[in-house]
Every structure is written in structure tokens, then in C-alpha cells.
Amino acid sequence: MQNYEKNKSEILEEYRQLRAELHNNQIMRVQLLTYTVGAVMGIVSFVLDKILTKNDIEIGEKMEYLLLSSMIIYLIIIASLLMMRTFQQSVERIGMYIREYIEKELPGLKWETTWFNMKKDMERNMLLKKIINFKSIGSRGWGPIYFILSIMPVLTISFIIFKEKLLGHMFNSFYHIGLLILNSILFFISIFLTFDLEIHITKDWEWSSIKIIQESDASK
């Protein structure tokens, strides 16, 4: 009985530490998204003000401002997405460990198991369940926000080009063409990472799944 109580105490301590780490990662996700949105909106506002309100800027300089600022936005979004994926994978791994190794040992603790089962019920009732994979439901909501951020530079460039009549000047410089190509590459990287965050395309998400634990236990 004494050994059981000691083991129970150790499990509870591990549970408290994991819950604290889980909570910290959840806070970091919100802060990261907040800073990312603020940075993107700040750059977009600066560019719109710089190009639309300054009459002394030449067309070539406007194009340079537009394309370089767009690249900066995409670099910020991509860096943010990579960090968000890390936080999300950590949250999912911790939640999975708590469900499989702690809550099964201590029946009074059921938060992660109850929440996980509730998410499964939500998935069954979703109209798009064949398109949206259940394993992404923990991060659902982040993807659409990053998608909006990813298309903002495209919308901003399109708006300024047509408003300032810059379309005829876009391909007059190899420098501008190069910047446009780099922007296109960064755009597709950003979109890919956004969808990966939402529907878990890449293999590294498997390390956050129950499948890994089951395979590890089976090999012992």
C-alpha cells in the first residue's frame, strides 16, 4: 500500500509538470499568433501609407517597396508557422502521454481523455469530416488565420498595382521579376505549411499520434 501511494504521488507530480508544460505551450501559441498578426498588419499599413500617400516616390521604388515588404511578411509568416507546428506537436504529444500513461493509472484524472473523446464526437458530426482529418482538430482554427495572413500580401500587391497602374512596369526589370518569383515561392511555402498545420500532411506529425506509442509498446 505504501509503495502504491508513493507511485501515485510520483505520477501526480509528473502529471502536474506535464500540465504546466502543456499550459505554457498553449499560451505560447496564442502569443505567437498575436505577434504575427500584429507584425503583418503593421507592415501592410506601412506599405500602403508609403506608396499611396507619398507622391514623390518613383514607380520603380514603389515596386521595390511592395515586393520587398511582401517577402518580409512571408518570412515572418513562415517562421511563425514553423514555431506554431512545434508548439502544436508538443501539445499533442503531452496530451497523448497523459491519456495513455497517467489517466489510465489514476481513474480520477480524466480531463485529457474526456476532451479527446469529445473531439472525436465533434469530428463524427462534421460535414467535411472526409476532407478534414480528425488528427488536425486540436489545431483547427489556426490554419484559417494563417491562410488569411498568407493571401494578404497577394491582395495588397494586386490592389496597389491596379490602383497605381503599375501592371505595365512589373516586368520592366529583371530585379523586380526576381523579387516576384521569390514572393511566389514563399507564398506557396506559406500555404503548404498552413495546410500542414491544419490537416497534418507531413510525416513528423506521426510522432504526436497514439500510433507511435502503440508501436513502441508492441516492440517491447
Shape: elongated
Instruction: Say how many strands there are.
Output: 0
Computed CA radius of gyration, to the nearest angstrom: 23 Å
Number of structural domains: 1
Biggest sheet, open or closed, and with what strands and sense?
A: none
* Strand content range: under 5%
CA distance, first residue to last residue: 28 Å
Keywords: Membrane, Transmembrane, Transmembrane helix
Transmembrane segments: 32-53, 65-84, 145-162, 174-195
What do you see in this structure?
This protein is mainly alpha-helical. It has one domain. It is built from six helices and no strands. Helix 2 runs parallel beside helix 5. The protein is elongated, with a radius of gyration of 23 Å. The chain starts with a helix and ends with a helix. Residues 127-138 have low confidence and may be disordered. Keywords: Membrane, Transmembrane, Transmembrane helix. The chain crosses the membrane at residues 32-53, 65-84, 145-162, 174-195.
Condensed summary:
The protein has 220 residues and is an all-alpha fold. Helix content is 76%, strand content 0%. It has helices spanning 2-52, 59-102, 111-124, 142-163, 174-199, 210-219.
What labels would you give this structure?
6 helices, transmembrane helix, mainly alpha, 220 residues, 0% strand, transmembrane
Furnish the topology, listing elements before pairings.
Elements: H1 2-52, H2 59-102, H3 111-124, H4 142-163, H5 174-199, H6 210-219
Helix pairs in contact: 1-2, 1-4, 2-4, 2-5, 4-5
